[in-house]
TrEMBL record:
This is Adenosine 5'-monophosphoramidase HINT3. Residues 57-169 form the HIT domain. It catalyses: adenosine 5'-phosphoramidate + H2O = NH4(+) + AMP. Coiled coil: none annotated. A motif (Histidine triad motif) lies at residues 149-153. One of its GO terms (molecular function) is hydrolase activity. Keywords: Hydrolase, Nucleotide-binding. Residues 191-213 are annotated as: Disordered. Belongs to the HINT family. It holds the Pfam family DcpS_C. It comes from the Eukaryota. PROSITE patterns: HIT_2 (PS51084).
Length: 213
């Protein structure tokens, strides 16, 4: 079942871009073009779940089929690996083994999952000498994602990030939202019907942003 969804907005919320505060929109040409792009993307239907791509690299890593990946933690639900293009001294990806395409597929039933992702990221970061209070953590939004399988970035220290990486992972921008902002939005959603069904088995579940459109 396809759904129309809203878009990441401003002021720490995930909102329909059409309702964004005009005063927050960049005045530069690039900012205007970015706004137009996201208006167009808001018309694209996104389902809550899609078929698992045969070649999904993160699914292969989660199954243990990619010996080249540097795995720092794994259990029955998650795996934590190093990013192949680190944005700072420490850069890890926390990946759920369940194939969820991206952050726009989440709803209120994923709150625990996102919290666990942050917890596992913190443990790996601190075990490897990084500091949580100097960490940037969050998710990219389509189309600004490298792999179509949900993953949380754990980057530390922020002070060691280049200007380019600062832009790529800019908190609460059109393309990247902090884990805290995602959790805040999920906790404010109305409970999804059919609580007895798991997110993966409920094909009619409403995605996070679809509820806001």
């Amino acid at each position: 079942m396809s759904e129309q969804v809203g878009l990441p907005g401003t002021e720490g919320q995930l909102i329909d871009q059409a309702n964004a505060d005009e005063s927050t929109v960049p005045s530069s040409i690039s900012g205007i073009l970015m706004r137009v792009l996201y208006r167009l993307l808001s018309l694209v239907p996104w389902g809550a779940r899609g078929e698992i791509p045969v070649q999904c690299v993160f699914c292969r890593i989660a199954r243990g089929d990619d010996p080249t990946s540097e795995i720092h933690y794994h259990d029955s639900q998650f795996v934590v690996i190093s990013d192949i293009a680190p944005a700072s001294t420490h850069h890890y990806l926390v990946i759920p083994k369940e194939h969820i395409r991206d952050v726009r597929c989440l709803d209120d039933r994923h709150i625990d999952m996102v919290r666990q992702m942050a917890d596992h990221g913190r443990k790996v970061l601190e075990l490897r000498g990084g500091k949580w209070d100097e960490c940037r953590r969050g998710f990219h939004f389509p189309p600004f994602i490298s792999v179509g399988h949900l993953h949380m970035h754990i980057i530390s220290p922020e002070s060691a990030m280049s200007k380019r990486n600062e832009l790529t992972f800019r908190n609460d921008s059109y393309w990247f939202r902090s884990a805290d902002a995602i959790l805040e939005m999920l906790t404010r959603l109305q409970p999804t019907p059919s609580r007895l069904q798991t997110p993966s088995s409920d094909k009619n579940s409403t995605s996070m942003l679809a509820k806001l459109s």
